[in-house]
Amino acid sequence: MSRSRWKMLRERKLAEGFSEPADVADARREIRLSMALAQAVYERRTELGLTQTELAARSGLTQAKISRIEGSDTVPTLPLLARLVQALDATLNIALDDAKTEVSFVAHSTDAA
């Protein structure tokens, strides 16, 4: 079954009053957060023109760890996030609620006043 067909089936079931079990809804939220973080890391890294290997060197991590983060295979700990934020020269913003998840890196100002 294609993803779009599965999504339409899920939306139809939800419209008909079907509700997911709590554990499925929790897992969906965790996956959404992991994917949002992965996308934000990838976007900031490419914005800086860095390879995964270069970001790994800047953050003191391995290229494999960066790959797992960008592939949403793992959710980093807070200390690891702090290292990524420093290596990406940005501030990390995370907004969580039931309806949506937003993760973004905001570049530090480079203005020399």
Automatic annotation (TrEMBL):
GO cellular component terms listed in the entry, alphabetical order: cytosol
SMART domains xref list: HTH_XRE (SM00530)
Occurrences of domain HTH cro/C1-type (ranges): 41-95
Protein name: Helix-turn-helix domain-containing protein
Coiled-coil features, chain-numbered ranges: none
Pfam families listed in its UniProt record: HTH_3
Natural source organism: Kribbella albertanoniae
PANTHER family, A to Z: HTH-TYPE TRANSCRIPTIONAL REGULATOR, METHYLPHOSPHONATE SYNTHASE
Entry keywords, A to Z: DNA-binding
Organismal lineage: Bacteria, Bacillati, Actinomycetota, Actinomycetes, Propionibacteriales
